[in-house]
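Morning!

This is the sequence you dropped in the shared folder:
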Amino acid sequence: QVQLVESGGGLVQPGGSLRLSCAASGSIFSITSMGWYRQAPGRQRELVASMTNGGVTNYADSVKGRFTISRDNKNTVDLQMNNLNPGDTAVYFCNARLIVAGIFYNRWGQGTQVTVSS
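The structure's back. Tokens below.
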């Protein structure tokens, strides 16, 4: 099992910045990628950014050029969010994609609220 603990988030004005961090514990050897998803009220959860163990990144079009994902080691993932706008308001979830006996699984953090408002 893998457990994810998130930190960061909060209230920021439009144009501001926030940094989210997530640390995994447990069977981290099974992690193949980590990333961040978000879910706004009344909307489906969507990918924000992800990074594989090999460093391949994937960003939602809406955050390209503003958000940067990084992984200092295999069991952590950070999301630097710059130039935030009200459309970025959502609960942000850390995600770890695992492979166990050839089967992929997703593990999720508890979520952290990001609110962009003046």
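Headline: The CA atoms of residues 34 and 103 lie 16 Å apart.

More detail when I'm at my desk.
O.
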